[in-house]
Amino acid sequence: MQKPKKLKISTKNKSYGIMDSPFYKLKSKRKLAELLCVSLSDLSVLKKDEGNYSIFEQLSKKGKLRKIQKPLDKLDIVHTRIASLLSRIALPDYLHSGKQGCSNVTNAKAHLNYDKMMTTDIKSFFPSTTRVMVFSFFYSVMKTSSDVADFLSHICTCHGQLPTGSRISMPLAYFANSRMFDEIYQLCQKLTVKMTVYVDDLTFSGVNVNRLFCAVIGKIINKHGHAVHPTKTKMYGKEKPKLVTGVIVLGDSLKVRNEQHRLMARDIECWKMIKDMENAKETSFAKTLFGRLHSMGVIDQRYKSKVLTLKVNTAN
After folding, report:
1. pTM value?
2. What stretch of H or E contains 105?
3. In CATH, what number does 92-129+177-247 get?
4. What is the DSSP pairing of strand 247-250 with strand 242-244?
5. Which DSSP state fits 102?
6. What is the pLDDT of residue 109?
């Protein structure tokens, strides 16, 4: 029996402005159903949370339990379709997540050679992006009719908030909060401050980054129904190494953080024990090490050559 194809977001290499999106000024539920490739009766069923999600808890990398809402079957297909359509809308330069050619590393790279910096993130970003925010995006920004916006706001949220386990989560988290990000960006433009956004991480650099600037950013975020994470807001001076989306920024160069060096040393010790075994390259130990070094190599090229050296010395 053939495995079903894994669903993926597809942009079809399209990029256009909001006014060219098929959602823009969509006024009919029938046309919405056609756009999402489902029947109108299916659309009504998919509005309901019950029976459309698998809800479970999952340990994060930091060992914390996170509640996951994963859309099932037909809703998963519809979410992927909506995410694909949203992902075709051109994104601003300041956004580095969910965009081809961008990553946490390009996000950090944008802040090279700045003396003063502030990093912060939005607390519980996906859960605090509510159905009302999603409705407001489709109604006020996309200019859909109120009933279309209402349908979409229910289909795209679970128990009144953005689901954490859906393909729709990242693109819609940005668009539902785009007016907040744009307001912050306009302030940064006035103050000649460099701003980047990576999902819920915001980074600012420039001479006008100070405590007052930090307070104003916090007020804008609060005004839009969110809150900054108090323990994750950091101010950095000129000489300090700056941690930006998992990468160290120091003057004009990017460096791998110490935590990654520690994990690499641990993985190499595991690799030494299995490197001469038959099919050692196929073991999870080797794959973890090679994957880690490849990620580190995106920041510093030396680690990519280390992967090749280790592969030569690992049994096939």
Report:
1. 0.89
2. helix 104-109
3. 3.30.70
4. antiparallel
5. -
6. 95
